[in-house]
Fold each of these.
Amino acid sequence: MNLLTDREFFLLLHLGLGIIFIHGFAGGIATLVDRTSLRLQGTPLQARIRAVSTSFMAFALWAAVVSGTWLVYPGYGEEPPDGAATTAYPRADLQANGDLAFWHDFGMEWKEHVAWLTPFLATAVAFAAIRHGRRVSRDTAIRRSLVRLFTVAAAASVVAAGLGAVINKVAPNQFLDL
Amino acid sequence: MSLTDSRTQTALERPRDTALPARGSRDDAEAPNGAIAAATLAAGIACAVFGVLVVLVELNEGLKPTLRESWVGGPLAAKGLAATAVWAVAWGLLHLAWRDRELPWRRISRATTLLVGFALVTTFPPVFQLAGH
């Protein structure tokens, strides 16, 4: 008995990365922003939490774009054979259905592209936190820049995840059973 | 004094530079900012290159079917891999050039912000789809 098809497993893997992302972002931003906690401020524990959290977020974002691009998207974007019903082909189905085409032409196009920006930004932040933790702790200007990059990466990820959730709801999902 | 007060006092008295260095790194509070500058600017460059590729592929409609057939993952995978390759090369070169230097951080930060901003604009569908029309 198969509990999950390959495509269902890939989608669950892709979605599950959100858990790592959320924890990584929370720990990273809390330890990058000044005065989040008087107890932790400037301590080795703060630097350690910052390094681990930003690394988790970078890992989650790389894994999300790789699994999304190579494991999930090919099933979503597959072209139906001539004359076949489009219900097992989400992209073709959305584009063949008037107003729903918006969810591919705008939604999926934005999701797939903006998501690819995020791992570069998160990796830069993680590198600084791991290799130059003391300088990051001391230098407010550097920390502010890292907060900006980290926040943009998180916001772009939220856009991508939100659009993915809506598209998953709007488009037919029979392709997951194949 | 309560346990909480004692902990708070200890943390407040602790100097800010006590963060532990990563094993094998040149981590100290006075280390030059060049390596961090290289990492952040390389990320900005990768984002901007990805944005340019999105527009270029949209400008060449004929490219999409070719990439769809010749790359697993299609045009998106091709753009992502190309940006990743540029990122790795740019980061490596910048790191080698800057790792021992102290750079004007404000300029690095501004350049990175501009590159990331450019990428956010060019990956917004109404903008890059305009190039295709």
Note: Residues 34-59 of chain B form the longest helix (26 residues).
Amino acid sequence: MNPSPFSISRRDFLAKTVVGAGAGLILGAPSLLRAANADGSDKIHVALVGMGKQGRVLFEAMSNIPGLHFQAVCDIWDYNLKGGMAKVRALQGHMPKGYEDIDEMLATEKGLDAVIIATPDFWHSPHTVKCLEAGLNVYCEKMMSNTIEGARDMVRATEKSGKLCQIGHQRRSNPRYRYTKEQLINGKKILGQIVNINSQWNRAVASSQDLGFNPKLTIKQEILTKYGFKDMHQFMNWRTYRDLSGGPISDLGAHQIDIFGWFLGVQPKSVFASGGNAYFKDREHFDSVMCIFEYETPQGSVRAFYEVLTTTSYGGGFYESFLGTEGSIKISEIASSSEIYREDSAPSWDGLVEAGYLKRKPAPPKPAPSADTVASYESAAPEGFELPGGFNKPAHQPHLENFFASVRGQAKLNCDARHAFESEAAIYWVNPSARSKERIEFTTEQLSV
Amino acid sequence: MTTETTTPDNNLALIYGSLLLRLWLAMRAIQTGVEKFAGAKASDSAVEIDGAVNEYGLTAASSAKHYNLDNYHGVPEALMTKFKDEPLMLKFALPLYDKMLGPALILLGITILLGIGYRTSLFLLGLLYISLTWGLILIKQDEGVSWLGIHMILVAMALHLAGHNRLSILKKW
């Protein structure tokens, strides 16, 4: 089914290019994909591994990116496989090759350049390592793995292969996040000294229920067993099992805790966590987790509080708030949830507004004095601002664009495996801290490959 | 002292009243139908910072309204979802109703505006409003029901004043 009979020689060419490029590529510099196909299309040939909910989200985002050819789809569930293949056909006009087994796909498909991995967390590391060893560039969903050792294997395999491995922390390519970090926090230093971080992802009970399935679509038991699932319920709800995932702190928290270290530029020194099963009492993972990370930055210490609750949507869903001596930024993937405030005592931001760095928000109406107002020592209400713009793309698209631009040698990965590991490493210690009810002071070994 | 005649045929106030009602009902129907082809197009214009286009790809967070056949939505999606859950709703008829609502409003608005079968057009418009009212009663949208009730009063008034109607293309019906 490979439309390009000349792809093998192109891959050989690429392999030789990588070998020739030497250490620079091994250290994560962009892999060069400049040679055009025989048809002159210069398309990147892509395999999709895992076409469940997240796989489809990524595919929808990729369908807006020109220059891609979806060559193969792999999923152990026939329902996802057929559905995914149909989506690909609808997009590019012809059916991709379908596989249940990734090994068979890698052995059969020639001319692949890249693979998109959106399988359950416990398969991320084995699948990524296999694909890297097969000479493919990999985009793998976060969390890197359900174990820290699995994540380490991914970093080692990436650096050994000289191929690219982008981890799906898509906020790292989000224009609003990048602008906030580079221009407002590091450039204009509008927050002054960052002293605290508050962040959450709270989700209502109704949105946290187990996923059901049509019994007619049940996967054969031997296939489930082969791929590490006890039964169909576990296949559908792998996120709630300790051997298969890291639970809510990994599923949801990893996206946001990643931002803490990325914005601050350092790894945390310690974590102290608490967790429990407040509502979903039969689940292996905690349904509610709260934790505090401590960071030492050149400016001073920063405490970051994070909570993930799958039991209530209180507090407006998900966001990350960076609190500083001169201002604060509440940022979220949902643009309307984002807010920026200037402390009353901070220098004026009028110049930033005039130059277009910020937009001023309309002032809220002043509340009428009432008997229950506590007047003493109350700070003046901070002035509200917002980012000067947004972006009109699916949330994952910029991160995927960055990946494919890097495959073409036109960009550098925004979240390669090593940087993702440095960010994720501390997250692997949240559940152990919650279970032992002890604070963990990180050692270098705990947070490094 | 002059005495103003009050016979229906030459009472200028009744003629004006009929004309105004006709214009209002026509405009209401036509524009409501046209709005069903309206959609929002997000702005792609890049934000300028310090006098230069920003390098992050930030775009102005605004959207412009535009009309296109592809935008057509007869029954708003939020209402459609509720209607589908109603046991008394004829499920097979919903897609048909969704397709015909916008064109029907535009067509009836034009016939009322031009005076083509004026009385029958008003009657059909009234039936259309009754159908909308029934749907809103099912999903307990009492404000919408009241709103449509006002429309029905205006349609009835227009029919009552139809005898004073002027400038019609087809007076029959």
Note: The CA atoms of residues 369 and 375 of chain A lie 10 Å apart.
